[in-house]
Amino acid sequence: MTPANPLLEGIRILDLSRLLPGPFCSLYLAQMGAEVIKIEEPQGGDYARGMGQMFALVNRGKKSVTLDLRNAQDREAFLTLADSADVILESFRPGVMDKLGCGYQTLRARNPRLVYAAITGYGQNGPYRDWAGHDMNYLAYAGVLDQIGNAGHRPAISNVQIADLAGGALTCAMGILAAVIGAQKSGQGTMVDVSMMEGAMALQPIALAALREDGEIPARGAGILTGALPNYQVYRCRDGQYLAVGALEPKFFIRMLTVIGNDLPAPLRALLPKKSAGRSAGGKTRSSDKNPFGKLDKLFGNAKRARMVGAPIRLALAGLFMTRTRDQWAALLADQDACVAPVLRLDEALHDPQVRARQLIEDDGGKPAFGLPIKFDHPRAPLPPAPALGADTESVLAATSAGKSA
Length: 406
Hints:
Low-confidence stretches: 276-289
Structural class: alpha/beta
Helix content: 25-40%
Strand order of the largest sheet: 3-2-1-4-5-6
Distance between the termini: 35 Å
Mean pLDDT: 91
Radius of gyration: 27 Å
Shape: elongated
Largest sheet: 6 strands, parallel
CATH superfamily of the largest domain: Crotonobetainyl-coa:carnitine coa-transferase, domain 1
Order of helices and strands: EHEHEHEHHEHHEHHHEEHHEEHHEHHEEH
């Protein structure tokens, strides 16, 4: 029998990060088998411990060791732990670890294969390196916040932490994995310097493509994928819920209209393909589709024209979707290859049949938790609950001391 791929088993990560981005990063690594040891201050530990369920969610499967790095004895214990670690992860402002005597150069001199990862708002250098910030600030500087929201309205605040998680945590996890592979091959570690602002900025290929093409960014809510197209829109339904129409390609849009069929108002019925008969060279009758909306793809590169041409269609669709509830539309258009979906709340999404079939949701002490959203050949067991502050201090330090003595 072929043995299972061990993934990150045997990889030890010392995680000094706090709050959300760093712990979310190390959660993914723990879910892939790494040993993650949270290094926390004895007085209170990770600030997120005061945030209840958020801490419990993102710190599952980890160990907790309490050390005060301002104390010489605790600092020496940390350095000893770092000697046998594969990865150090921290989220302090640049220079803090150096002041504590535990910076990258110090640790690297002791453990050349160590991967040292730092998640910060603006990176280890540059004029903003020492500035405080949060997700909103990084998105603002990155040009992302300006694009979120509807036309004519102020920028909207996303309830998903785009810079913290996608720009910071996941970007850092990718960097750590690349650096660990490189360290295993070469015996040399490296610094992984992740700026949440830069990570968020790099998530904008569509906006940057528009800038390259047209010399300007479309106004908020007026871009091709943010409001210009009637077939890539969110529509309100009769019950006040919403339907996401993502029928971007004409074939999907025509399919949606075809499924709706007789309920279409006249402006939309005119968009359906019309069959016309003709004769081929062999004398046989053939039919062709005359699709008056088939040139929609030509509007893709011109947001202003797309918004103008699509306005009557958008208004007709808005009226149409107000005639039924969200779930009625979802039932009608489900499994129709039309790229239409109900806009679910998270509590609804947790029970969605696709989510259940993929077993994303795990039980964490009677409460739902997200499993790893990556599937491997061999399923991995759910992680144990988040640790109590300092729960593993004695066992981890004792094992490290014993290993050093041996």
